[in-house]
Amino acid sequence: MSLSLAQFTEQARGALPDHLGIEFLEASGERVVARMPVERRVHQPFGVLHGGASVALAETVASMGAHLSVAERGMTAVGLEINANHLRAVREGAVTATATPIHQGRTTQVWQIEVVDEQNRAVCVSRCTLAVIPAPPVG
């Protein structure tokens, strides 16, 4: 069984996206947009957005888009590799990630993710490769 966006949001309660405060703004198999607040829980010790939180946001949006693109076939997607370049420090406010596919194959997908601050300045660019696998039972 595959998950819709609403089911995914419910399934994510208590999981990492929920803990990070990630909120989906738009989601399809061609584009996913999500917002994450920048506050103490996603800071590194010096008070700026932790690179790992940016990467978690990036993989979350890429995984959601890849899942939505294959869900009708009874498949889902899981991360194989992710890279990221951190371009700007953010201390407060929010960041927004936009994921779009570069490649959507039968067994793998590659997604490009851009994370920007509230002034639309680049914070992080990332690329995520995902494996397309049979969806496990939900429940």
UniProtKB/TrEMBL annotation:
The keyword Hydrolase applies. The keyword Ligase does not apply. It comes from the Bacteria. Transmembrane segments: none annotated. Residues 46-124 form the Thioesterase domain. Signal peptide: none annotated. Keywords: Hydrolase. Belongs to the thioesterase PaaI family. NCBIfam families: unchar_dom_1. This is Hotdog fold thioesterase. It comes from Deinococcus navajonensis.
